[in-house]
């Protein structure tokens, strides 16, 4: 949409007036995004770190849980172990869902994100004045000139499902710990 500008000149974000020109172009022609830029989405570096650490963790959890399905492992199953594995399964599902939401944002360029904001802008909203990416809850928020905002790109079911899975993880983990302590005290072992 905008071509390269001379060094020190700013690109206006779509729909923004001159008071919103915060991006500065370096001498190389690459825009420098500052912290005051109202058109920031998710930081690609942080997204990559989340995906590159989350994917191996998810694979490790999945491999561990699959190993627990062997006949030998099932013979030694105790109630605390069942609850522990249910805790890990819920955590793995939450992690997979979060990574899926991050992938929605990773593959969209800034211009595509701006187009999604414009496409989903509520009727009667005068103009868009900013965009921000939140990691918790996971969302891409478009800000409007009347002070309201709305989320785009990331499916609306992700954050409620994450909340339910994290509560399930917490509850199952608590039950597992309580059953483990009860079993140890019944056997006469300390702690």
Structural account:
By secondary structure, this protein is mostly helical. The chain is built from five helices and five strands, in the order E-E-H-H-H-H-E-E-E-H. Strands 3-4-5 form a three-stranded antiparallel sheet, with helices on one face. Strand 3 (128-134) and strand 4 (139-144) form a beta hairpin. The chain is elongated and about 70 Å long. The chain starts with 23 loop residues before the first strand and ends in a 5-residue tail after the last helix. Residues 15-26 have low confidence and may be disordered.
Short description:
The chain has 5 helices and 5 strands; from the N terminus they run ββααααβββα. The chain is mainly alpha-helical.
Shape designation: elongated
Distance from first to last alpha carbon:
65 Å
Which structural class fits the helix and strand makeup? Answer: mainly alpha
Gyration radius, in Å: 24 Å
Mean pLDDT across residues: 83
Quote the beta fraction: 5-15%
**Percent of residues in helical segments?**
40-55%
Low-confidence stretches: 15-26
Number of helices: 5
Tally of strands = 5
Strand order of the largest sheet: 3-4-5
What labels describe this entry?
191 residues, mainly alpha, two-stranded antiparallel sheet, 5 helices, 11% strand, elongated
Topology:
Layout: E1 24-25, E2 31-32, H1 44-67, H2 71-75, H3 79-106, H4 110-119, E3 128-134, E4 139-144, E5 149-152, H5 158-186
Antiparallel strand pairs: 1-2, 3-4, 4-5
Helix pairs in contact: 1-3, 3-5
């Amino acid at each position: 949409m905008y071509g390269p500008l001379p060094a020190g000149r700013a690109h206006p974000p779509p729909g923004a007036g001159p008071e919103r020109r915060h991006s500065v172009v370096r001498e190389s022609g690459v825009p420098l995004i500052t912290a005051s830029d109202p058109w920031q989405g998710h930081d690609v570096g942080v997204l990559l770190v989340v995906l590159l650490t989350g994917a191996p963790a998810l694979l490790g959890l999945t491999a561990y849980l699959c190993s627990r399905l062997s006949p030998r492992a099932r013979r030694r199953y105790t109630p605390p172990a069942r609850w522990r594995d249910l805790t890990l399964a819920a955590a793995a599902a939450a992690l997979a869902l979060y990574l899926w939401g991050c992938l929605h944002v990773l593959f969209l360029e800034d211009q595509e994100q701006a187009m999604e904001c414009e496409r989903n802008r509520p009727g009667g909203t005068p103009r868009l004045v900013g965009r921000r990416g939140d990691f918790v809850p996971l969302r891409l928020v478009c800000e409007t000139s009347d002070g309201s905002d709305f989320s785009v790109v990331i499916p609306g079911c992700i954050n409620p499902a994450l909340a339910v899975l994290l509560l399930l993880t917490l509850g199952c983990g608590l039950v597992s710990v309580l059953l483990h302590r009860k079993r140890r005290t019944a056997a006469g072992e300390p702690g």
